[in-house]
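sorry to bug you again but im stuck and you know this stuff better than me. below you get a single protein, a line of residues and a line of whole numbers that encode the local backbone shape. mainly i need to know what kind of three dimensional shape the backbone takes. anything you notice is useful, everything is just below:

***
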Amino acid sequence: MRIGVPQERLAQETRAAATPKTVEQLLKLGFSVAVESGAGKLASFDDEAFAEAGAEIVTGDEVWQSDVILKVNAPNDDEIALLNPGTTLISFIWPAQNPQLMEKLAARNINVMAMDSVPRISRAQSLDALSSMANIAGYRAIVEAAHEFGRFFTGQITAAGKVPPAKVMVIGAGVAGLAAIGAANSLGRYCSRLRYPSGSEGAGAEYGRRVPRAGL
């Protein structure tokens, strides 16, 4: 059975559905893997890295002939037309929000595994792509906030003067919120206040029950 990894067509998408390391793991399980040329370029994985891992580098038309298609984003109409009946598609689909997409895939007899619908249970933890993406989003949120903030997060006391540590408020304590707290802690922030406690104290945050709103 061949697994195909096409290049993502969505504008500004830098992710790839597979890496050279995961290609090696799939090969050990007995699958063959075809990767479209350039599929990992924006994720800093060149064709040579995939080839060294054992993947076959193919054209865009060839990759869609695979038995299983791995994608990050749901396919557009042009990509759906390239899917053969009976193909298994593994991707973020958001079926409840995209009923028309589901109808188009069903009309072509496509087997769909929506990565966003994988239950958050221990047996499916290795497939929990949503938590992985939320973790990255929480970290990136602090990086972006630090850029916009314009001064130090960590406090400093020097002969030239004193810089107080920044105070960071994180609303929510899910996967993204906890990742944001961890990232803020690593940058030396003073405290984080959350709307919900749920394990946040262990991450180094102070729980705030009430979040004041401007004008209220």
